Amino acid sequence: MQGKKDKIITSFMMKYELLQVIGNPYVHIFGVGLPIMFAIIITKVALAEVPGEEWAPMVTTSIYLGMGALIPMAVLLMGYSVSYAQELSKGIPERMQLFGIKKSVQLCNRALSQLLFLLFAFLIFFTSGYLLSELQRPTMHGLAVYILCMLAFSMICLALAHGLACICRNFGKTYCVSMILYFAFMILGGMMGISYEDLPAWAQAVAKLLPVTYINKDFYKIWTGESYHYMPMLQSFLFLGAVSGILLFFALKRHPGIHRQRA
């Protein structure tokens, strides 16, 4: 008979992983505080240049929808990668395996705890948006697509972060690479005050391959129920997902001893 340690989700591991997430200052600073601050500041700057008040809800909603993509980028791409790299450098996953906690159990509980924190971060983000700004209410279709896109983008960021941590395997390298990717996504996605149209041609070509570009630039149409051509956005999700999957596969193959289950 299999014991409790063979369960995929356990209360002990969930509590441990949630404490790991909550105790990570990067996810609070970059995953909760920074998106709210950026959304408020950029909204005020943008509204100062808008001639009429009737455009305020559209501008505010568009900015908040785009800034929402910063949450999975910060919580997973930065916070998770750095935290897991530190665990790898200290041999914590291997020690857990010695106590019978399988890699699959660790990964499932870690992913679920990250998902719960993302939900909490999104609730704070949009609650502050509705309290402090004029956000338009979405259609049911728009809300469902936004949730689906954020979930897919979060899974991509998780795979990218896990692979990055396995390759770098220490705090310094992982932090450096994840920070570069974080700000590169922000700049190319039009979240740093430079719109997609103002980017040079080579940068626009790269930006087309990133989901954050479409989330920041086009999601207002989906949110409000306007007709939208989904294919370019879908292609960007498939491309970045394939890159993240390849990186994760390479990382697991490069360190087979770390990820191989003990008999």
Radius of gyration: 20 Å
Q: Based on helices, strands and strand pairing, what is the structural class?
A: mainly alpha
Report the sheet with the most strands, covering strand number, pairing sense and barrel closure.
none
Number of distinct helices: 12
Low-confidence stretches: 1-5, 256-263
Average pLDDT level: 84
Write down the secondary-structure element order. HHHHHHHHHHHH
Sum up the overall morphology in one term. globular
Percent helix, as a range, is over 70%
Describe what this molecule looks like in 3D.
- The protein is mainly alpha-helical and 263 residues long.
- The protein is built from twelve helices and no strands.
- The protein has helices at residues 11-22, 25-49, 56-67, 70-90, 92-98, 103-132, 140-168, 171-188, 201-207, 211-223, 231-254, 256-259.
- Helix 3 runs antiparallel to helix 10 (211-223).
- The protein is 77% helix and 0% strand.
- It is globular.
- The model is unreliable at 1-5 and 256-263 (pLDDT under 50).
